[in-house]
Amino acid sequence: MSDLANGILVRHVSLGVGKIVALEPFAAHVFFPAAEKRFATKLRLPDALSLLRTEGVVPDAWLQGLSAFTLDPETRRYALAATWLTHEQAIAQFVAAYPQGFADPRHAGPAAAAGKGGRAPRWRAAHEAWVRAFGEGEGERLVAAGNVRELVKRTLAVEKQVAALHPADEAGALAEALSDPSATELFYQRLFELLSVPSPSRARFDRLFAASAALAPSSDSAWVVATLLPFIAEPERQVFLRPGTACDAARRLGCDLRWDDTPNWATYSAFRTFSSSLLEELRPIGARDHVDVETFLHVTATTRAKPKVAAGGRPSAAARPRSKVAGDPRAPEARKAGAAVRERRPAPAQRKGRAR
User: Fold this and answer.
1) d(C-alpha 51, C-alpha 43), whole Å
2) Residue 302: count of CB within 10 angstroms of its CB
3) Could you give the CA distance from residue 206 to residue 214 in angstroms, rounded to a whole number?
4) Of 46, 118, 185, 288, which is most buried with the most CB atoms under 10 A?
5) First CA to last CA across the chain, in angstroms?
6) Do the Cβ atoms of 298 and 166 come closer than 8 Å?
7) pLDDT, tens digit, for every residue of 234-281?
8) pLDDT in tens, 79-129
9) Are the CB atoms for 139 and 233 separated by under 8 Å?
């Protein structure tokens, strides 16, 4: 067999399905998720050709999404980050925080019941506020009238719904960015131009990114300004890229975001593909849009203890979330979530890049 290529999936007679992460003249570096190790296996060529096949390998979105492999110059081995999580470890970590998955009241319940840590209710409240403020063509009418002051006033009222979710260094970043009337008017033109079509082209994103970069006082806030409002307006289609969370979560899940501090299509497209892949993988435990993915990424990025996974890929007893119901060590929802995950191939999706 001579049809090996970097990035394709292969099946090894004893190691199972893997992804080729690098090819050398006399070696193939293949990552096998079943090994539950972050290192790719170095297979000698041409001897290994008789042990590998490429035909009939079932596609695996998580495995195919792994791209953040770096070469250790001393060992000459390719590896993911030391903090890398498998798919099941990431799910176990999320279910430990939200035992009922995305149906957990602390995630999906009313904002008043969500308490200090609630995220999804705040994002959904912001979306509803956006629809009231700018729906039915109201945003486009304000832009056409050049009413920048009213656009900013309504925008900040919408953003107030999620102010509690901003880290301290982002507080007030949007208000500061929208303080220049001339640059702000162009930004709103580009924003509603993008939102006016169901599937915006790259050119529309490029124009929005350029306008947001001109507004924002720092590179981090530029990404927030560029992606926050599209995400609030259309959480089923657009994604919110907060640099610290996105970079940390993507690294832990093995995805290369092609990071650049300045808002750009390559990084945004990589992150949107990453988020969309996660959304499909998380649907078995109730994820419905990118708001749910945002919470999952937040938990992945901010929880530092790697969940223990027992033989067979199942979270160990110590890592399994406990129900508050007497006599039941795990809530039924958590058991269902675990079963849904085990039906899928355990492997992550994801990144290298910078972190904060």
Assistant:
1) 10
2) 12
3) 12
4) 118
5) 44
6) no
7) 999 999 999 999 999 999 999 999 999 999 999 999 999 999 999 998
8) 998 889 888 899 999 999 899 899 888 788 775 444 455 789 999 999 999
9) no
Residue 22 CB partners (closer than 8 Å, separation 6+): 6, 28, 29, 40, 69, 71, 78
What sign does the CA torsion over 277, 200, 242, 265 have? positive
Q: Are strands 41-44 and 52-53 parallel, antiparallel or unpaired?
A: unpaired
Tokens 């890592």, residue?
319
Decide: 227 and 268 in contact? Cβ < 8 Å: yes
The SS3 assignment for 72 reads strand
**Number of other CB atoms surrounding residue 269 within 10 Å:** 14
CA distances (Å), origin 120, targets 95, 222, 287: 15, 23, 11
> How many CB atoms neighbour CB 113 within 10 A?
11
Q: Which helix (H) or strand (E) holds 165?
A: none
Reply yes or no: is the peptide bond before residue 346 cis, omega within 30 of 0: no
Place of tokens 């992804």: 19
Residue that the structure tokens 């042990």 belong to? 51
The phi, psi pair for 292, rounded to 5°, reads: -65, -40
The tokens describing 92, both together, are 């176990």
Which two three-digit tokens encode residue 282? 């998380």
* Rounded Cα distance, 264 and 191, in Å: 15
- Write down the domain spans for the chain: 9-59, 87-302
CA distances (Å), 97 to each of 306, 337, 343, in order?
13, 13, 21
Q: Which residue has the tokens 């920048």?
A: 148
